[in-house]
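Sample A.
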Amino acid sequence: MALSPSWLVAGFICVMCLVRVSFHLGEASAGPLTVACVIGVAALQLPISLPGRRRLSAALFPVQAVVNYLPLLAEAGSWRAGGSGFVAASALLVVSGPAAWLLLGVIAAVEGIVASSLDRAPLGVYYAVVAPVTVGLMLYGLSGLTDLLHRVGRERSELAARAEEVERLRLWRHVQHLVVSSVSAVERLAERARRQGGAEAVRNRVSRAVAIARSALDRVRSLPPADGPLPVPPGDHDERIVRLATPILVVVHVLFIGQSLFNFAAGETRDPGSGDAAYLALLPVAFALQFWHLAALRAGRRPKGLVWTLAAQGIATYLPLADGETSGLVVSGFFAGVVLLYARAPVSWPLTVAICGIAGLEGWLTRSPLLAGYQFCSSLGTALAVYGLTRLVALVTELRRTRAELVEVAALRERLKVRRDVHDLLGRGLTAIVLHGELALRLLEADRGRAMEHVERMTEAARATLADAAGLNAPGRGLSLAAEVDSARAVLESAGASVRIDAAPVSGRAEPVLAVVLREAVTNVLRHSTPGECLVRIAVEDGRVRLLVANDGAAPASDEPGTGLRSMRARLAAIGGELTVTRAGDRFELLARAPVDHENLTLTR
């Protein structure tokens, strides 16, 4: 089971707090104030390290530093140098630039000076200097990477929005080329037909305009998505994550190697003929295998013979125990981290606990249960740090892939939306242009006056279509249902239908959706019917609105629902509505039902 970054940071802080508490409780001189301050410093570390709290961190950092060093002033006898790792991490997180690293050096130097003044052995002085640096670096790495990962997560929605905007602009240019140029040509031809020329010139211009409009309408009905690869914006923090994690892992490993060697050198007098030389030979082998495993994970591959290489690292780590050499247990947490990274979920955590338990058991057998707790938690904290720093770097590759997929999904969603908008909002205008043009051609010989009226309406329809096309690129636009009702009456009457309208006013989220539904319904009437009578009725009752469009003269039904019906159903479903159609002979009825106001819970804009 993979830990989330925030839980990983919180777990590491809690484990390292237990390390310090068990260490101080193991000392007879440790007072209650010291233990309380250790817990208080850890509690303050949580809001400092978790993402999204940087302003609070700046205020808490001085408080944490005071609480950390308070026992040195109040209970100097219980102070144990080397326990300022949380303050070191906070310094790196809160202070920026070179000053942060200078402050880390100051903290390590102070710890070393205090240890020397307390007459600690060289091993104790080394521990006092190295411990805050290692804990500080590990926690800084985990916190910093988690914060960067948190920022990347926040950027995903912005990235999706940018991808949608880019795709809308691309499709807008496609629509301009596809529709706007065609409708503009229709408008020019209709204007020339109205103003000048004999019957033959009018016929030629209107015929050309109808052909252009019909071609544009056919292309709108089968508008293809814009092809071509989409640019994926680079992640600003990706390289920072990689640059941050790798040096921290290397430095921490090197410092722990030094501590292991100090533990070895601080032991009793060594016999050159004993197995001690084997320990010195196996230590570099263990760390070579450690880096081999971590490098493979960073490269995103699984090493060949993984079971054998893990077994070899375990042998190199624990074989000196057979000769009673325990100095290497201080680095067993690194082996536990590798096992946690590579082993599958059902066994990874039990194995990790078992590996850390070996270090704890050694402390129990040699000294006390508190030392067992200290060594167990220290190994577990190291394992969590190795796991977190390596896993978060691996997540960068995952996020890059997710970012590319997110761009594609956002663009595809926008393509479908624009395609639907073009079909629904421009289809009626193009259909009206074709209708008026064909009527004008039929009437040109018999009634030139009425024919020219249809040419004028053709011009008006072209202008309205251009206005609708311009509105396609206006985000957040919404059609007026009242305006669509008036437009429906004019278009249907111009087609020779007797129109009856009974429309109640509608407001709220349903209005623009029903306006589009009404527009598409009227387009379908013009395309698939020769209507003699048409009824449009809009009623509101009990918080729901009903839109009915009924007409006669409908053409025979096709087997599959058209693009328009599918689009209307999708729009209504997005606001909790539904669409039904019925047919009886040549009479066709379309009924849309929707709540007047509905919270939009869909992912589309």
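Sample B.
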Amino acid sequence: MKKTTRNIALLITILIGILVLSEFVFKRFDMTYDQRYSLSETTHEILEGIEKPLKINVLLGGELSGDYRTLKNEISFLLDEFRTINPKISYQFLDPSKDFSMETLQENGLAPAPVRTDKGILNVYPYAQISFDGKESWMETLVNDPALPFEQLALASTEKLEYLFMEDLRKITQVNRKNIGFLVHHDELGQLHMDGLGRALADNYNVDVFLKPVQDSTYSLQQEDLKDLLNYDALVVAKPTLPFTDMDKLVMDQYIMNGGKMMFLTEMVDAEMDSIFRSGKIVAFPRDMKLNEFFFNYGIRIIPAIVKDLEASKIVLADGETTAGNISYNSYTWPYFVRGFKADENPITQSINSVKFEFANPIELLENPNVQHEVLLATSPYTSLQPSMSFIELAEVDEINPQEYEMGRIPLAVLAQGNLKSAFAARYEREEFPNFKSETTEGKLLVISDGDVAKNHVLMGRPMRLGEDKYSLRPDNPKQRPVSYDNQNFLTNSIDYLLGETDFLNLKNRKLEIPTLNETKVKLEKSSWQMTNLIIPVLGIWILGIGMIWWRKKRFSA
């Protein structure tokens, strides 16, 4: 009896000790196979760096459908983890119909998501309000993926929640933002056509245009410009149409050698869709940008020809009249609007479906022991080439011969990185450049063989979202939404990668499996599972009771 008493006392002491220890030591164990509740190191760093109170109001507090209840639960789990890491973070769920006026919702551009239920249409507001240090912002808790049906967005968003929240928390708490500069003195894309990319990059970076060569009327970079250019963490050249001078190339070379990252979107053949629509056909003239030697140093050559692809985008054309006398419109494959699909494995393209190119050129990779090449985007296997100085006719939509498209996959976007060497290391120009550097470690240069990848279309004088295709719209259907491609995601991912933001790319690419019920199986097996859940607990208690009676009789009968 004393031994039993001591054992009970020891057990009580251990339990009390565990209870007291739990007040000072907190540890969660993520036992899920996909580690869905384990946050990335970048998330930990950002959350731990928040030194002032941060409040999150999630507008999912009212009546919800099943998918949105799942989304709400996942958000709650995630924000609990945030609060565990930093107690200065607080959150609550609010009912938009009760806690906000309709004027407030409309002023902040919060449009409801209409969800069909058995009771009718339910308006859900998938948004969150973030308040920090006197600043306020709104974010969507749904992913922006045009490729997904609207009904699947709620469940698809559950695997992106950490990225969605951390992207907005980074924006509102960020102090030291990296700088991105655009070179514009070679008649690059104008502001109206760069609106989409500029706005997308401005969410996370300081975006600026380097105007000095235009302001001083030299239209070429000078030695003294390098100091100013090094204030930019990355430089973007988007569809230049004028040749580069030797000094341009020397300054850009030294920018890369001094640790700068560059992204070139350029093409070597002049062909524009507007000209084809006006005249029906054009001559594809070669365009010498004087960049062959510059790219050759990094093992890259852009061939002056145009890629054609059977898996290209479609365009809408008027092709006759209907029986009612109206203009007839139909979609046709336009082989010159090729789509870029992911090629080599890289975080940039892991979540990319396809990127639209317009009159792209093929890229040839050259052997260079100092350069590591990664083909980010390539065509489908069903391709051919249209040489420069040849006609491109709109009538080709009716003359596609599949037997001519057998060239295989052609690279369209290539990343060159590694311990890069200067193209001017053995040239006399190095003597004229102070503090000349002949090599760099961890250099990065991204070359895309089409400037239109960064060009957002303009419809009725207004810029469209980058990746939305105005050529997919039917004039006889004003309510139709344009076909969308992943141009914006690809370019923003590329900048993130060039600037070392790979952790955020990994968050963006993260895949989680949210288990869902098989509704057919539920209906077929509902009764059997109900009986199982009713009988097994009762049977277990009955067996346990019989066992205890038998054990007591056996023990005390002696």
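B remarks: The chain is about 30% helix and 25% strand. The first strand starts at residue 54 and ends at 58.
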